[in-house]
Predict the 3D structure of the following.
Amino acid sequence: MEDVLRPLIVLGGTVAATVAAGLLIDRLLRYSSDKHPSKRLPGLLRRVQLPLQVLLGSTALHGTFPLAELDFRQEQVVRNLLATIAIMSAAWLTIRVADAMAENTLHNYADRTADVARVRQLNTQLALVRRIVTAVLALSTAAVAILLLFPNLRTLGTSLLASAGVIGVIAGVAAQSTLGNLMAGLQIAFGDSVKIGDTVVVEGEWGTVEEITLAFLTVRIWDDRRLTMPVSYFNSKPYENWSKGGPQITGTVFLHVDHSTPVAELREHLYEFLRERPDWDGRSWNLLVTDSTPTNIVLRASMSARNADDVWTLRCAVREELVSWLSRNHPYALPKIPTAVAPDAGHLAPVLSGSAYGYRRSSE
């Protein structure tokens, strides 16, 4: 009877104690979050309950397993398995804690500053650092777990470490593109060339940087398509970053109209229209004749906005309003395409004289 009760008491008591400890820690974090709602870290740390429970349980079972006095040959295998689970859960717990602290740091920094560009830069840096830490921990944990579960591979691991220099050179040549993207990602994160949330124009597509990984950068285009490209692209080719230097931006609208267009009245109407628009920030505006051709003139209307999204909406609204106003009040100002047949056109026929083309009347 003791052979059955002792393992049940030892192992069951260990599991119950670790579950109670995990629930107690979660209850304390929830109490701290409710008592201090301005502090987000205790609430964010509640996400670590599951990996914490696994870590506490596997570590406690690894320590109390000999006390159960189970008589079977695979005891060491079980203990190695518990040690492996403890190591993997510790890495999992570390990643969860790092994510919570990074999110809390970003939130606190965003509350202290009004500089959106700085917040985006910190968000980009934290995202890349978290991915690097996650990748390093995952690889290290996998290597340790394999060595614990398969002790016979330790000799092989020692031999591999002895030839690590040669393997490093071979791996560097084979993964040259991947390492290049990794270094490019680090340059982007700490070089402030492009950040998560920036409005960019890449390959003729206008969109917002949605995600930056260790190898790829994703741009969410205005029509909800995703443009994914290597991170190294942004260190080797030119692109437009509309958020660089501040979110404020000036938009333009071009109109091709007749020479008789009342430009002064159109300029006055543009100003009156902009004053009623909430997406115009009031910094600047203008309406200028920028070009003239034998058939029309080119008007350029410029207006400033707080960010790229507002300037796009404002440009569309201004273009629609100016065309509608001209159609209602001065329809003659809209561009015209001549379609009348020239007089006596039917009596003219092409004639080739030497190397130049000319015309002569068909009656000749």
Observations:
- The mean pLDDT is 77.
- The longest strand covers residues 249-257.
- The chain is about 55% helix and 15% strand.
- The radius of gyration is 35 Å.
